[in-house]
Design goal:
This protein is α/β, with parallel strands linked by helices. 37% of the residues lie in helices and 16% in strands. It has an eight-stranded mixed beta sheet, sandwiched between helices.
Length: 295
């Protein structure tokens, strides 16, 4: 089992692919077949390293929260794993709470990032407090009630009238409920909270986002039940030079439901950074009247 030991904590990781572009991702768990693992395949062919966060799964479990907070600690862990593997700079991507980790890397260690790809992971709106999202709090409080767990998963998934997708969700939602119900108590209590809890208002959050100085791609779902469209647009507006792609017909589980859509956008963005994207169409020369448009 591949692990890296940091002090007294073991972090489990897996590697996919062997391309020149190195992508790191961290989360409580990974599927092994969807995003970001898909980035190791055509057309991207990246080297992808997934890191299971401390506190979960095959990484060391903890009896109390890290002193600097979960998200900040997980972000530092990503950089420590990169150090252990001899990786200087990398592309980081994360979905949901994994995206929250990326925002902390961008703030705490921006020199490590070639780029950051946030998938349904922009910092939450400040409404309802910053210690936790309402859905996460309710999921923890009702973790022994499958009905409550199912309700929260459905909220996250968002609306769909596509019969194929609805049929697939019946299976995936049942599996998610089972996974949550089977979580041990030393895992089920963990609540990472909202990123940047020191920002008590949306305006204070905007100030933090304005200080981010790394290339950022925001991939967002407009039917997301926890990361609002306003949150995604806030990131696109206040992170200098950010690019955002908004999927109207997707929800919070886009990384497992539509991973190919994400991979295509990541490839385009990285190609743009590398200057290898398809060239733009040449501009038409201005008309002899001196302007491009006439009345």
């Amino acid at each position: 089992m591949p692990t890296i030991t940091l002090d007294d904590v073991d972090l489990y990781y897996e590697e996919y692919g062997s391309g020149d572009e190195v992508v790191l991702a961290s989360a409580n768990g990974f599927s092994g077949w969807a995003y970001p693992e898909l980035l190791a395949d055509e057309p991207t062919n990246y080297r992808v390293i997934t890191i299971q966060t401390r506190g979960f799964g095959k990484s060391s479990h903890l009896s109390e929260a890290p002193a600097i907070g979960w998200l900040a600690q997980w972000a530092d862990d990503v950089c420590a794993v990169a150090d252990a593997l001899g990786i200087d700079t990398f592309i980081y991507t994360g979905a949901s709470h994994g995206g929250g980790i990326g925002w902390y890397i961008a703030q705490r260690n921006p020199d490590r990032l070639k780029a950051f790809v946030s998938v349904v992971g922009t910092p939450h709106d400040r409404a309802g407090g910053t210690d936790s999202s309402e859905g996460r709090r309710r999921m923890i409080e009702g973790r022994h009630d499958p009905k409550i767990v199912r309700e929260q998963i459905e909220i996250l998934g968002g609306f769909s009238d596509d019969p194929v997708r609805l049929a697939e969700r019946e299976i995936s939602y049942a599996n998610r409920v089972t996974e949550h119900m089977n979580r041990s108590e030393d895992v089920a209590w963990i609540n990472q909270g909202k990123p940047f809890p020191e920002a008590q208002t949306d305006e204070e959050l905007e100030a933090i986002l304005s200080g981010i100085r790394v290339p950022v791609l925001i991939l967002a779902s407009m039917r997301d039940g926890v990361i609002s469209p306003e949150s995604s647009l806030r990131g696109a507006k206040f992170v200098r030079g950010a690019k955002a792609v908004l999927f109207e017909d997707e929800g919070h589980f886009i990384s497992s439901e539509s991973p190919e859509r994400l991979a295509r956008e990541v490839k385009l963005y990285v190609d743009e950074l590398n200057g290898t994207a398809l060239p733009r169409r040449p501009r038409r020369p201005a008309s002899s009247t001196g302007g491009a448009f006439t009345e």
